[in-house]
Specification:
Two copies of one chain form a homodimer.
Chain A: E1 4-8, H1 12-23, E2 27-32, H2 36-46, E3 49-51, E4 63-66, H3 70-78, E5 86-89, E6 105-111, E7 128-132, H4 135-148, E8 152-154, H5 157-187, H6 196-205, H7 218-221, H8 224-233, H9 238-255
Parallel strand pairs in A: 1-2, 1-4, 2-3, 4-5, 5-6, 7-8
Antiparallel strand pairs in A: 6-7
């Protein structure tokens, strides 16, 4: 049974995860962060201990959740303070095997969502992608995740990498398209809110369909006149012009199964 | 006062618009479409007349709404059957001046939304972008639009072009990103629904913020290791690899105000 948890990290994900766990019957007993201020800030939210000295972390915890940047994980492991403990990380693109030289009990606890400090999130809807090095640990993680989410998925490291990559397309790249739309409208004194019903519909549509079947617009119709007009409208910005042409071609190639 | 309307076109937009207008006190009295079958299909939905012969359109209507492809508008005007009538089109990227050699009463009636035949839409939420050649006609269009939508916007032809272009980024390009995410997950036996909470959050976030301030992911952090790993994961597809690099660079340039 996992009852006591140490949270390594105090960023956006660590913060939301700590708060969600603390609402359940599982308790985060200590927060570690490189910076004392961040550690304290998060610890104060749930009234638990904190430290910025990795040597001072509680050695009697049932689970150590590492929620730091991908690059920082290995360095934390090298301190050996978590050796032989049950350790998980929360990263989309880091293989579970990163733990194998440090402990016999390990896994991954990856909530698939984008977290911002200021926005509350409903953890119960977030897909929890879990993986563990044996059945016992997997069961422990299943029980733990079901305390905070109703969407538990068994995902291996290879699949998780692909999910993380897909999330870059569906979240980061999508947000970039929104940014450009915002910028174009702002330059022409049009409020971005005019696009919101369209954006909502574009998103709602894919919930019951393969987005491939829903592609519309000048690129898929190969409507050269509209494409040319749009590129002219973008003449003030080389980078938008290039992006417009590039993505338009990609849409056309995708629809026509060209792989160049 | 506009009471009798002839609808020129029977595609997705024409269909949804006809149905919305017919629910109001304004009546579509006739549908024209190049193909008799499509004209009949739409006319049957609201029990009105129809024709596939442009010479047979009702000459006593108060308004002619042209809802056909951009390319087809001019050819319809050249038949001169609508000469001197009050004519509007519904196109994002066609200038209002297209009418000026044919009539003294004209305008634009552009509902900013993506329409699919099978999906119902709530017209009341759709921004109606209107423009007219004089105040009287503008008032007529204002009254007409307020019968079907609560979001009426006065938008000139230049702004409308920019809105249409922005919509390509925020709708067509976004859908392409979803298509690629879908494809990557499908190839790895992961159901696309795993991304839905993330997609919903990505969209909800921008409703109160400039998307530029919300950009996350490896590209904006310039996290070369993750970017390299992702590109490796895409080695099976040249086009995805190129798109990934291209959009990542664009995100970085956008954030750092580079214009190359």
């Amino acid at each position: 049974m996992i009852n006591k948890i140490v949270l390594i990290g105090a960023g956006n994900l660590a913060t939301h995860l700590t708060i969600a766990l603390n609402k359940s019957s599982k308790k985060v007993v200590q927060i570690y962060s490189r910076t004392r201020k961040s550690a304290k800030e998060l610890a104060d939210k749930i009234s638990c201990k904190y430290t910025n000295n990795i040597l001072e972390i509680d050695r009697n915890s049932d689970l150590y959740i590492i929620a730091v940047s991908d690059k920082a994980i290995e360095n934390l492991l090298k301190t050996k303070v978590m050796n032989d403990k049950f350790i998980v990380h929360t990263a989309g693109s880091v293989n579970m095997n990163i733990f194998k030289n440090y402990t016999n009990n390990y896994g991954v606890f990856y909530p698939l969502q984008t977290f911002s400090k200021k926005r509350e999130v409903d953890f119960s809807e977030i897909p929890m992608c879990i993986e563990a090095n044996n059945d016992n640990n997997l069961n422990l993680l299943k029980t733990l995740s079901s305390e905070i989410s109703k969407d538990i998925r068994l995902i291996n490291s290879e699949q998780r990498k692909q999910i993380h990559l897909s999330a870059v397309f569906a979240c980061n790249f999508v947000n970039h398209m929104y940014s450009i739309a915002y910028d174009l409208l702002e330059k022409n004194d049009v409020n971005f809110d005019i696009l919101k019903p369209l954006i909502t519909e574009t998103t709602n549509k894919i919930y019951n369909n393969n987005p491939h079947d829903l592609q519309t617009g000048p690129a898929i119709r190969n409507d050269k006149k509209v494409i040319k007009n749009h590129i002219e409208l973008l003449s003030h910005s080389k980078k938008y012009k290039k992006l417009y042409s590039f993505v338009s071609k990609s849409i056309y190639k995708f629809a026509n199964k060209l792989n160049k």
